[in-house]
Write a structure and sequence with these properties.
The chain contains 15 helices and 26 strands. By secondary structure, it is an alpha/beta fold. β22 and β23 form a beta hairpin. α10 (258-265) packs across α11 (289-299). Pfam families: AMP-binding (PF00501), AMP-binding_C (PF13193).
Length: 518
Amino acid sequence: MYVTIGSLFLQTVKKYGKEEALVDSERNIRWTYEQWNHEVNRLANALLDAGVKKGDRVSTFLFNTVELGTLFFSCAKIGAVLNPINFRLKSNEIAYIIEDAKPSIFVFEKMLEPVVSAIQENYPEVSFWSIDEGAPAYAESYTQHLRLSSDREPAVDVDENDLYAIMYTSGTTGRPKGVMHRHRSMVEQSLMCGASLHLKQKDRGLVVAPMFHCAELHCSFLPRVHFGATNVILHHFEPKKVLETIQNEKISLFFAAPTMWNMILQEDYSRYDRSSLRVGLYGAAPMAPSLVTAVKNQLGINLIQAYGMTEMGPAVTFLDEHEQLAKVGSAGRAAINHEVRVVRPNEHGPSEPEDVLPSGEVGEIIVKGPSMMMGYYNRPDASETAMYKGWYHSGDLGYMDEENYLFVSDRVDDMIISGGENVYPREVEDAIHGHNAVLDVAVLGQPDEKWGEVVTAVIVKKSSITAEELDRYCKESPNLADYKRPRKYLFVDELPRNASGKIQKFRLREQFQVKSNT
């Protein structure tokens, strides 16, 4: 039988038991793999004692904590299905997930208590556990459950093809769907990411992106455990705290979404010792070429890009360190054991996998590989459409160059058609992002009687800039044809993003009442 996530953890414990495994310096926690395994077993047995059976869902509503890291492996050892929930969600959104996933246990922390308190009485069948002291009356104490349980290895038969987690998509277009992943799929993802990042046992990785999201959980946190490295947890992202922790904990690598890298660059990073850093991983959203160059030149960090989606675990392509400037703008080539195609979009149903487009021609990106989801939970029709003929249909637009490097243009739903010409928002965003006064940008289509749609740019300023100055900049840009130039500029304090850092354009469309293809 192939290894499961639980047995993977136990293998690492046996090989590297005395090595430092998990650190939270704010809480003065430093566990070796042996110590962490005792905690994992205590929690696994506490869940069993509470009546959790193989296949039952355990929901977590937590920031980055040692408890979430421990729950990850405790659930895996007993065959419980982990359901990590976005800590940014509101009460009604949490209620939707509870009603869909139907968890037996819901674990939360004090900072998120108001959201849970607003809905908990509607779910008497769910056992709510608080990880903090002074739990509310409706909740049980996580700590007390651990205190009363055994640290023996739980005796539950878990198979490689068993369901390991249900991860709800962040939602760039609306209601989230529960993505189902099996144990073997995520072990494959872990091996692939570890190899692509050249992981070593002596690496010290920073956990700062949200752990409920697969980019952190499967591309960073799990591979480091797989290779016997150390995970240093930060409760949430604060640029100064990131820099302090890199210096104090001698961090060698970490994952951050482009927005996070951009925020780190706004700090006085030269005050901190960053010499331990060897590589940074980015993904979850496109990074403008100007930002890639700035991170490389100003922070002195070698970058690796991963492109993917929750449904694929997530990573399906990588762009290596030595390719960052030579292939700037590319998402890289297909990951180990994965296939990527660009096919002709079909307006009347799923795209045909065999209708492959020639290099340079934009179409829908479809992928397949060992980390593909089992399907969407309780959504058989959506699963069938998404995995048509064994390929995951991403809904992303892109093209391949002659060397089989993938370039992601945009979402199918976001493409703008102006005067019969296709405009891909990302290329306009990349051009505008090159202006020193622009911190963030999103480009949308707005209905127009003459042109069908006109390009509209929503801007977050870094410093003073006017629409006229931006328009002049775009007119002078050698990278932007005139028909792609925005005809309208809107200024906002911030752009709405989901947990993975992707801009939620449907919210901007609602706010500014511009068009929607969905």
